[in-house]
Specification:
It is a single chain. The chain has 335 residues and is an alpha/beta fold. The chain is 37% helix and 23% strand. It is built from 13 helices and 13 strands. The chain has a 6-stranded mixed sheet with strand order 8-9-10-11-12-13, with helices on both faces. A 5-stranded mixed sheet has the order 2-7-6-1-3. A two-stranded parallel ribbon has the order 4-5. Helix 3 crosses helix 12, helix 7 packs parallel to helix 9 and helix 12 packs antiparallel against helix 13.
């Protein structure tokens, strides 16, 4: 469950960036001055559409890693009743993701413009409809909730805490009550800073928490851990109160090219080196974190050990960073 965004990527020139006051390599939320950008970018000659949004990216990659059967994952999120919404539906279907969108006409489908100049990409996100997810009108509907009940593993990016924390709590409690696995991502430093209350309300139900080194450090600072040591932060996060005592919380922190840190059992940690990559082969690190989670989940649902989940995460991230956006070749080469 998350924010479904349509990624619109096109090659632009410096004049285009200057016109909208964009830096060549950046990630921002759309403001009033960017409204016309979205109309203009779709008129570019080589425009590409990809179903995006953090959670949806992870789900697509998990499906790609698994290959068969199709529709191993169900995705919930809100879109508009418009052309972009139709494209999102089509792209989800092509990726074999079982997307059940809440559709409303108040707001248009959320988009993220990726303005490419050479090796750089400037991202401008407009949440719009994604922000309108409604628990009563979607999650609570019997036909949708039955899909939640069918699942064994749940994953939601922290970004969704800004949209519908009550939906996250309902799913998290269901997982906890039924001894199923609930995963959450710290997603961005601003979540730990400005959405602390909903984040900490859901934390007692979290079985697997993902994050990168910056997010981990921000979380620690906000929680008053008084340490910047990532291993110590992981231990402290693992020790936070937990409702379902049958599952030990797993904490997984990625650190870019540095080793991934994970808690293997009670307070013991392991470092997992990432795959080597030549700096020149890195095209775009956007989506690397989403890909890591996707790879991880693909092995987790097959009940593989933690080491294998992390190895798959590293593989998927390594594939994604060689390509523009969160895209992948036809088949994975993971053994």
């Amino acid at each position: 469950m998350g924010n479904p965004l349509l990624d619109i990527s096109a090659v632009v020139d410096k004049d285009f960036l200057d016109k909208y006051g964009l830096k060549p390599n950046d990630q921002i939320l759309a403001e009033e001055k960017h409204k016309a950008l979205f109309d203009e970018i779709v008129k570019k000659s080589k425009v590409e559409y990809h179903a995006g949004g953090s959670t949806q990216n992870s789900v697509k990659i998990a499906q790609w890693m698994i290959q068969e059967p199709h529709k191993v994952a169900t995705f919930f999120g809100c879109i508009g009743t418009d052309h972009f919404g139709e494209i999102l539906k089509q792209k989800a279907a092509e990726a074999h993701v079982d997307a059940h969108y809440y559709e409303q006409s108040q707001e248009p489908t959320g988009t993220c413009a990726a303005c490419i100049t050479g090796d750089n990409r400037s991202l401008v996100a407009n949440l719009a409809a994604a922000n309108c997810y409604n628990k009563e009108k979607h999650l609570d509907v019997d036909s949708n909730w039955s899909l939640v009940e069918k699942a064994r593993v749940y994953y939601i990016a922290g970004f969704f805490l800004t949209v519908s924390p009550e939906s996250i709590l309902k799913v998290a409690k269901h997982a906890s009550d039924n001894n199923k696995i609930f995963g959450l991502n710290l997603s961005a430093p601003f979540i730990s800073q400005f959405f602390k209350e909903p984040l900490m309300k859901v934390m007692p139900y979290v079985d697997i928490i993902f994050g990168n080194e910056t997010e981990a450090a921000t979380f620690a600072k906000e929680q008053g851990f008084e340490t910047e040591d990532i291993a110590e932060i992981a231990r402290r996060v693992q020790s936070l109160p937990k409702v379902n005592k049958n599952r030990q919380r797993i904490v997984v922190f990625t650190q870019g090219r540095e080793d991934t840190v994970a808690t293997v059992d009670h307070l013991s940690l392991k470092m997992f080196p990432v795959l080597d990559i030549d700096q020149n082969d890195i095209v775009d690190t956007n989506g690397a974190g989403d890909a890591f989670v996707g790879g991880f989940l693909s092995e987790l649902v097959q009940e593989k050990p933690l080491e294998e989940c992390i190895r798959a995460g590293h593989y998927a991230a390594n594939v994604i960073i060689r390509r523009v956006g969160c895209t992948f070749p036809e088949k994975p080469d993971f053994h």
